[in-house]
Every structure is written in C-alpha cells, then in structure tokens.
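Homework help board

Subject: predicted structure for assignment chain

Our instructor gave us this sequence and asked us to write out the predicted structure in token form, then describe one feature. I got the tokens but I'm not sure how to describe them. Can anyone check?
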Amino acid sequence: MGNDFTDPRRPVAILSIGDMGAGIARLLIAKGIRVVTDLTGRGPDTISRAQSAGVESLPLAEIVTSASAILSIVPPTSARPTAESVLSALAAHPRPQSLEPLTYVDLNAISPSAARGLAVLFTTDSSVRFVDGAIIGGPPSPSGDGWSLPEIPLSGPHTLPEFLSTILGGGGGGSAVDQQHISPEIGAASGLKMCFASLTKGYTAIAVQAFSTAHRMGVLGRLRESIERTTPGVGARLERSVTGMPPKAYRWVREMEEIGETFRDEG
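My token output:
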C-alpha cells in the first residue's frame, strides 16, 4: 500500500450536495472513491440527496484533516463563504504534517477576478492548495454502459491529486468527465465557464422575453412555427431551457452578475 501522499482511500469531500454535487458524488463512488460532506445545518432535501447518493456525513473539522480534496460546488454567492469556512476549520484544526496538502477545487460559476481573490485567501495556509475550476454541462448520470458527463476545465499552478485526476480524466477505467487542466493561470477555467454561460443563459433570457412578449401579442403559436420552420429542433430546446429555468433562477441572478464582471474586467 502507498504512503499518505498516494493513498487513494482518502475521501474526497463535496461541499455541497445539490444536484450537481450529488451527480459527481455518484460518479466518484462508482469509481471506488469514498465521498464525504458536511451536513451540519443542512435542510432535509440536502440530507436526503446525500444519503441517496451514498455520501457520508463528517464534520468540517474532520474533513479538512483527512480528505485528499474538497470540491466546492455551491451557488456563486456561497463560493467565498465556503472557502472561508474551510480555512477557518484548518486554522482551528491544523492538518497533520504527515499528510499531503489538501487540494481545494473551486468549481463554482464565478468571475476570474473572484477566483483570483479566492486563490489569495488560500496563500495564508501552506497545508492547502487552490485549484480554479468550472463545470460545463449537466450533472453526471449513468447512461447505458457509461455516463453522460460534463466538462470540468481546471487552471492554476496546482493540479488534482493523481488518483482523482485519473478517475475524472477516465484513465484506467473508461471515460469519465472531460477534465482538463487548460492553463497555469488562476481564472482561466472560471473565465471559460463565464463565456460559455453567457451564451446559454443569455439565450434562455432572450427566449423568455421573446415567448412572453409573443404570448401577450397573441402570436406565440406563429413564433413557434417560424422557429421550427427556419431552425428545426431549436424551438424544442428553447422551450426546455425556459421551462427548466425557474428552479435555478435564484442562482442565475448572481451568475449573470459574475458574467457581467467578467466582461467588464477581462473583455
């Protein structure tokens, strides 16, 4: 068996277990990884989702001293508070020196400048390494003899632990998520996500305006016909995006603000 620096039995923590977090948890568990989370103060839906996915509950103090990596998958407004809570836990419960540094992977929909701000926070503790990341696509889910998968671009000077990178990159066991380290610069992965999301969420926002205005004018049916005639299949995708948007709208507000910050600062 390898030493603490290579032991793949160390858990991977996911904060928190929403739909995306649960999907990634199921994928990792299917690949033989123990997945943990902190359910302190979480609601019944989150607890049920974690239990259904096979995720174990541990206090944050135990997570920071035992996990190999923490994947932060929270709404944009919670990205910084989540990072600060991890650093506070590390300050109160220092990581044993016999262990490899904890890898903290921010996979949230935040601007490059916000990602760089998080990276600065983590320079205060040498026992943790920060990785900028993003998720493009829906939650992983079983599909036939494989999985339907998102992309997970990563950037910055640090990478994932080798065993986790191998699993997410598909090495040794068939394809997994499309995980790639795209740049040594913090903010590149977050910026890619922002540019992609500006198109998908912007298109949905325009579709909401177009459909609601057409409905008020009494021409919604003709609009649908025109879309289908000129761009077959697009209308159905638009309607799915519009009807699927309301449960996620609370996250999209801040995400669109992060997109605006990205365009202002980087464009």
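Reply (TA_rk): Your tokens look well-formed. For the description, you could write something like this. Strands lie at 12-15, 35-37, 56-57, 69-72, 102-106, 128-133, 141-143, 146-148, 151-155, 178-183. That's the kind of observation they're looking for.
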